[in-house]
């Protein structure tokens, strides 16, 4: 499967929004400064990347994230509220590869997130998606298996702010609630810059070709 075009992605968002608006979602539907960044290196041109390559590259990063998280979770201080912050598009969900609604989970990331949530770590999702599709996004994340402790989407005034600054402010907000962000996972520099996470893990974006 080849990477989707922006036209198809925009169309998919429109379809997803219409689908969720039209259906009644069941009431019970559940579905610090960084100390280092782990990233996957690749020399493959973005236009040549297929789904299998992307998944392999994501798995490489998550195979480094999981041992760290296991160690950090085991070393939690008494009463410490640990949190994992995650981006959404092409991080937790297969945005440019999943042309359906709900969009599929990015399995390497979902596996790591499930380990964290099963061991008491709260999952917070910080995205540049606009608030108008907050409900669509929340339902999608829960449907594929993420336990959502918080979903941060951009409000009207946030749309005019620098994305990196907006995302940093959301992590500061999470910390203000007493959480220690033990890791931050995303596929763009704007997901990870600005600190306020003990460690960051960068998934491939192939020179910005994946949002």
From TrEMBL:
The keyword Hydrolase applies. This is Hydrolase. It comes from the Bacteria. GO terms for molecular function: hydrolase activity. It holds the Pfam family Acid_phosphat_B. PANTHER family: ACID PHOSPHATASE-LIKE PROTEIN. Keywords: Hydrolase, Signal. Residues 1-31 form the signal peptide.
């Amino acid at each position: 499967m080849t990477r989707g075009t922006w036209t198809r992605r925009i169309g998919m968002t429109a379809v997803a929004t219409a689908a969720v608006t039209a259906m009644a979602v069941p009431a019970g539907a559940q579905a610090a400064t960084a100390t280092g960044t782990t990233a996957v290196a690749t020399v493959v041109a973005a236009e040549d990347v297929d789904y299998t390559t992307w998944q392999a590259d994501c798995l490489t990063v998550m195979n480094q994230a999981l041992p760290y998280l296991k160690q950090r979770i085991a070393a939690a201080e008494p009463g410490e509220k640990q949190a994992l912050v995650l981006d959404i598009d092409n991080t937790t969900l297969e945005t440019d590869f999943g042309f359906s609604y709900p969009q599929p989970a990015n399995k390497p990331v979902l596996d790591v997130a499930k380990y964290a949530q099963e061991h008491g770590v709260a999952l917070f999702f910080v995205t540049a998606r606009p608030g108008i599709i907050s409900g669509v996004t929340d339902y999608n994340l829960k449907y594929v298996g993420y336990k959502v402790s918080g979903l941060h989407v951009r409000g009207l005034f946030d749309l005019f702010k620098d994305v990196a600054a907006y995302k940093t402010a959301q992590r500061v907000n999470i910390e203000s609630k007493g959480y220690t962000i033990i890791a931050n996972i995303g596929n763009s520099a704007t997901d990870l810059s600005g600190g306020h996470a003990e460690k960051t893990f960068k998934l491939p974006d192939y020179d910005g070709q994946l949002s």
